């Protein structure tokens, strides 16, 4: 092996400009691989190795892997370079794949159940909460979604500190109290507390640590493992709406929610038993740090994704289809069709992003979503149009959720900051997730034709896409490449 000080540089250009598969609802963890004594480089050889790593972008933080050159103490004393030190990742086996299975259960329950709120929204409008406006009801689902995102920055830090079992156990308790509590609820505040706060908090504190734990067990096959994890949210988005819609007329609201609770709590218990971190805990640094927003490209992308969130998640699409004579079953099952299409929207664009860059792929996908929102009313006046819309919109919107962390990675120079930078973006986006659907609900209240709500949603997605395009020009110029 060459003894050149640059021997640790990877020959693969992707190692210098990483565009990995950061899939669906995953926040990259922070500094997964702390240095240990057996990987320590002698002081005399460490400077050369560090320089080589810095030039080549070779780092092993936040789920981004690159080759790292290192020398043992004995070799350093002899002035000789040794082979690169590679962390000992299992990259398979029963224990590692059981962690993926547990993380899949968390993905299934957290995002799958959260994305099924549209079915609850329709039921509430006709039953317990019929005296409330659409905007009032939508605050419940908006808060649930926002908490999944907002809890990321705290849950990620707790995971790094070694508290993953405590987080998952707390999620079991919050899901149990929240879901079995609001099953018998008849008042707005009861449903708001049980479904909005308790269930949202449970999903928020469970998902990030569960997804991050996968990176403790896989290195070479990490993308494959995360690909398996990503299917959980989409499949959950198929199962929950069908289950709820099927059970409501047969066993009523109370036992439907209890059945959903048994499924959800059971899966989270399985996850609690199977998921564990592998690397030693790290000292937690300061939690809130908004210095990354000083970078123009990162700031533009963050604002763009936040504005897109304002328009992309709204529960009114399929409710509106009922006005045109489409059966209620088809309108509600469209949510499951959308989630089925999003499976491909979360995998194919991420695969392309490895070659062409996340921002390059994300921007046209978001533009497509915005155009489709404007086309919803003319497209969904018949069954065929509704099905076509849900498939196209599911595919295009799936890229938004799956590619945000990968986009942050492509804008990050120091991979030590990757987890924190992604959490910062998600924290800001969560504020817009909280307020987006209530704003649309207020527009529906004043304009029952839904035209105002759709124009607002479509305009938000188009404006956010334009900011993404602006960011693409800025970062492309900085990097000297079109693929960013």
TrEMBL record:
Localization terms from the record: Membrane
Region called Disordered, residue ranges: 1-66
Listed Gene3D superfamilies: MFS general substrate transporter like domains (1.20.1250.20)
MF terms in GO: transmembrane transporter activity
Keywords: Membrane, Transmembrane, Transmembrane helix, Transport
Domain of life: Eukaryota
Cellular component, GO, one term: membrane
InterPro entries the record matches: MFS (IPR011701), MFS_trans_sf (IPR036259), Proton-linked_MCT (IPR050327)
CDD domains: MFS_MCT_SLC16
Topology versus the membrane: Multi-pass membrane protein
Skewed-composition ranges (Low complexity): 42-58
Transmembrane segments: 137-156, 163-182, 188-211, 223-243, 255-276, 297-318, 356-377, 383-402, 423-444, 450-475
Pfam families documented for this protein: MFS_1
Signal peptide (residue range): none
Main location: membrane
Family listed: Belongs to the major facilitator superfamily. Monocarboxylate porter (TC 2.A.1.13) family.
Protein name, per record: BY PROTMAP: gi|472582221|gb|EMS19917.1| MFS transporter, monocarboxylate permease-like protein [Rhodosporidium toruloides NP11] gi|647399676|emb|CDR44580.1| RHTO0S09e06590g1_1 [Rhodosporidium torul...
């Amino acid at each position: 092996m060459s003894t050149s000080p640059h021997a640790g540089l990877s020959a693969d250009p992707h190692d210098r400009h990483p565009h990995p598969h950061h899939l669906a609802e995953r926040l990259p963890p922070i500094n997964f691989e702390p240095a240990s004594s057996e990987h320590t480089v002698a002081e005399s050889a460490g400077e050369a190795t560090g320089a080589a790593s810095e030039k080549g972008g070779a780092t092993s933080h936040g789920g981004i892997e690159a080759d790292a050159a290192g020398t043992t103490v004995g070799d350093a004393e002899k002035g000789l370079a040794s082979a690169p030190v590679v962390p000992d990742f299992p990259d398979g086996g029963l224990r590692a794949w059981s962690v993926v299975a547990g993380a899949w259960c968390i993905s299934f329950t957290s995002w799958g159940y959260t994305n099924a709120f549209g079915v609850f929204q329709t039921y509430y409008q006709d039953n317990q909460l019929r005296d409330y406006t659409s905007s009032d009801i939508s605050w419940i689902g908006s808060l649930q979604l926002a908490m999944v995102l907002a809890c990321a920055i705290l849950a990620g830090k707790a995971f790094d500190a070694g508290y993953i079992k405590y987080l998952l156990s707390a999620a079991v308790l919050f899901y149990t109290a929240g879901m079995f509590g609001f099953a018998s609820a008849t008042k707005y505040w009861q449903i708001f507390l049980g479904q909005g706060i308790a269930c949202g908090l449970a999903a928020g504190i469970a998902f990030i640590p569960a997804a991050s734990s996968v990176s403790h067990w896989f290195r070479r096959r990490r993308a494959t493992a995360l690909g398996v994890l990503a299917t959980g949210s989409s499949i959950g988005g198929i199962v929950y709406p069908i289950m709820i819609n099927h059970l409501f007329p047969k066993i009523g609201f109370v036992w439907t929610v209890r059945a959903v609770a048994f499924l959800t709590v059971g899966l989270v218990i399985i996850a609690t038993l199977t998921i564990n971190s592998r690397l030693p805990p790290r000292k937690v640094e300061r939690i809130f740090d908004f210095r990354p927003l000083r970078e123009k490209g990162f700031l533009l992308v963050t604002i763009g994704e936040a504005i897109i969130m304002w328009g992309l998640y709204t529960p009114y699409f399929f409710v509106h289809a009922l006005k045109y004579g489409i059966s209620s079953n088809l309108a509600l099952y469209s949510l499951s069709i959308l989630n089925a299409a999003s499976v491909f929207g979360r995998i194919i664009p991420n695969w392309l992003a490895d070659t062409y860059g996340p921002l390059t792929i994300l921007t046209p996908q978001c533009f497509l979503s915005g155009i489709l929102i404007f086309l919803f009313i003319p497209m969904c006046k018949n069954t065929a149009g509704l099905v076509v819309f849900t498939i196209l919109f599911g595919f295009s919107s799936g890229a938004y959720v799956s590619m945000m962390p990968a986009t942050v990675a492509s804008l990050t120079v120091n991979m030590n900051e990757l987890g924190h930078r992604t959490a910062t973006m998600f924290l800001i986006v969560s504020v817009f997730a909280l307020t987006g659907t209530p704003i649309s609900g207020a527009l529906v209240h004043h304009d029952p034709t839904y035209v105002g709500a759709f124009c607002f949603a479509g305009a938000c997605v188009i404006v956010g896409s334009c900011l993404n395009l602006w960011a693409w020009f800025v970062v492309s110029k900085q990097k000297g490449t079109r693929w960013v």
